């Protein structure tokens, strides 16, 4: 019985990059679809149901940030963003809107293929069992419904904020290191991107703390990480 090939959607308006990625992905046994703009990417993501999307930030018609946002509204397909070195703000925004990882141009094909394989393995290994509701005082997180309630009011969270808060609450009372947060929430190991955690923790504190400047729930443990206190 022949195994079904994993399908990858590559979105970039640079023809040379698309050709290179397509050649290497197909050589490694993947089925590849391509698009050169954000609008086509959204359409193909819906009709082709790829197992992974590789999405450039700088795209015509609709940029990669907006395309990522729209794809994420209806699909949990893993998304790897392609970014330029000077797009630091866009990297954080892309992750906040639901991208799972990013690769900075210019990149090595070895690194790119490693990221692709890691994302597909992570998707395969995701558990399907129902996740338990987490509740500590006035903070209630329901992973199954994707719902956060704080002091009786429902609070909207972006995908990465939700994952971050869930990991902290699951380890209530225990220190979760910054590297663990990167590995578990963003799924990459890159020391230079630790500031991403600072941004997301600040956003979370603004949503769940009575006084974000004097946090009582998400507490910083200097030099180590963070701890969620009940």
Write up what this structure looks like.
By secondary structure, this protein is of the alpha/beta class. It has two domains: 7-125, Response regulator (Rossmann fold); 134-228, Winged helix-like DNA-binding domain superfamily/Winged helix DNA-binding domain (Arc Repressor Mutant, subunit A, Orthogonal Bundle), CATH 1.10.10.10. It has eight helices and twelve strands. It has helices at 15-27, 38-48, 64-74, 88-96, 109-125, 159-170, 178-186, 195-208, and strands spanning 7-11, 31-35, 52-56, 79-84, 101-105, 134-136, 139-142, 147-150, 153-155, 176-177, 218-221, 225-228. The strands form three sheets. Strands 2-1-3-4-5 form a five-stranded parallel β-sheet, sandwiched between helices. Helix 2 (38-48) runs parallel beside helix 3 (64-74). The longest helix is centred in the middle third of the chain and has 17 residues, at 109-125. The radius of gyration is 19 Å and the shape is elongated. The N and C termini lie far apart (52 Å). The model has no long low-confidence stretch (mean pLDDT 86).
What features would you highlight for this structure?
single chain; 230 residues; alpha/beta; Rossmann fold; Arc Repressor Mutant, subunit A; 2 domains; 4-stranded antiparallel sheet; 12 strands; 42% helix; elongated
């Amino acid at each position: 019985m022949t195994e079904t090939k994993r399908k990858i959607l590559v979105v970039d308006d640079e023809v040379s990059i698309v050709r290179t990625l397509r050649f290497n992905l197909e050589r490694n046994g993947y089925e590849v679809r391509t698009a050169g703009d954000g609008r086509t990417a959204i359409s193909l993501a819906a009709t082709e149901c790829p197992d992974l999307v590789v999405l450039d930030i700088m795209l015509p018609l609709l940029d990669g940030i907006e395309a990522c946002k729209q794809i994420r509204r209806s699909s949990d397909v893993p998304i790897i963003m392609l970014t330029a070195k000077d797009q630091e703000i866009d990297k954080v925004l892309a992750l906040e809107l639901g991208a799972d990882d990013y690769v900075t141009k210019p990149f090595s094909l070895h690194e790119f293929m490693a990221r692709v394989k890691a994302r597909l393995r992570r998707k395969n290994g995701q558990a399907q069992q129902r996740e338990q509701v987490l509740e500590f005082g006035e903070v209630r997180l329901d992973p199954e419904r994707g719902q956060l309630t704080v002091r009786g009011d429902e609070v909207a969270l972006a995908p990465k904020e939700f994952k971050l808060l869930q990991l902290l609450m699951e380890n209530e009372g225990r220190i979760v290191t910054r590297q663990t947060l990167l590995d578990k929430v963003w799924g990459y190991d890159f020391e230079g991107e630790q500031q991403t955690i600072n941004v997301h923790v600040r956003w979370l504190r603004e949503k769940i703390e009575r006084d974000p400047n004097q946090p009582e729930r998400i507490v910083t443990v200097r030099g180590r990480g963070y701890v969620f206190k009940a």
